[in-house]
């Protein structure tokens, strides 16, 4: 085999390993922030964790329920599960009164219901305003799903009522329904949100009018000095200041927010109380974001894993050994992919026993394989 061919295959293996590492990081972003061995119920309403819904135990038409990562492995093996990504302030339901025929194996001493949990149609495997499953076998349109940071539903990009901006993975989205439930957000949107084409034009027009009116008022009105002194002594409300500017934005469609926008929300006592009453206090918490949770999961996984010995060991092997590894790795990767696709097609969770059985079969096949000549470098 020519040297050029050998080097090309070696680079290919490195690329594959790096790609696999990226996939592992994506999984770690969601799963490493959750405990895979212990039910999260004793922790109460966890700030953010991976949540699953079991259609085998709680089918559509019944009560919605969600289970933690560990219970999805230990208590619902072989069941049909919906992966709901992450949910905030959620407490594991596994084995409570919503599960008539199942007792939690990890923490059976649960209250009958978790009254503070919030549920949506996601728990029955449908998403967006169109209430369709994902992936949708009847949908031929390639479209991304984006999660609203308030209701946490996933919506198709084409059903948001607004243009999806570039670098959307670094932004947060609030759907139109949640914006209209919390009208004060439109004031912030006019100043803080990522502008759409139509919205930007509207903003610029209204801003010009506002500045003109403000200049005219400043020429005509002189405030008493005592009034200004009292106002300066009192804590200012950022929301009222923005409302006073009277800068408008078209109030329709989903709104996208840039990184760090939460830190610019008003934190005065009145606004904090309003956020609490509306049930959206989490908006003032930057650590509530999915991105913060994902980064925590990646960091935890990298700390636990340390340096990858496979990548460092590869450079210390001769070419024959490298080619043997390439051959075996590619075979294993293909077979593992086929193995996992069967679980995905049936909606089943892959358990440690399933993985152990797979590698036992691999080892058995390796012992039975007859090497007809191996690889030689020329």
TrEMBL record:
Alphabetical list of CDD domains matching this protein: PHD_UBR7, UBR-box_UBR7
Broad EC category: transferase
Pathway, per record: Protein modification; protein ubiquitination
Keywords linked to the UniProt accession: Isopeptide bond, Metal-binding, Phosphoprotein, Transferase, Ubl conjugation, Ubl conjugation pathway, Zinc, Zinc-finger
A GO CC annotation given for this chain: cytoplasm
Region annotation (Disordered) ranges: 197-229
Residue ranges covered by zinc fingers (UBR-type): 37-109
Cited InterPro entries: UBR7, UBR7-like_UBR-box, Znf_FYVE_PHD, Znf_RING/FYVE/PHD, Znf_UBR
Annotated UBR-type domain residues: 37-109
GO terms of molecular function: ubiquitin protein ligase activity; zinc ion binding
Catalytic activity: S-ubiquitinyl-[E2 ubiquitin-conjugating enzyme]-L-cysteine + [acceptor protein]-L-lysine = [E2 ubiquitin-conjugating enzyme]-L-cysteine + N(6)-ubiquitinyl-[acceptor protein]-L-lysine
EC identifiers of the protein: 2.3.2.27
SUPFAM superfamilies: FYVE/PHD zinc finger
Protein role: E3 ubiquitin-protein ligase which is a component of the N-end rule pathway. Recognizes and binds to proteins bearing specific N-terminal residues that are destabilizing according to the N-end rule, leading to their ubiquitination and subsequent degradation.
PANTHER family named in the record: E3 UBIQUITIN-PROTEIN LIGASE UBR7
Name of the protein this chain belongs to: Putative E3 ubiquitin-protein ligase UBR7
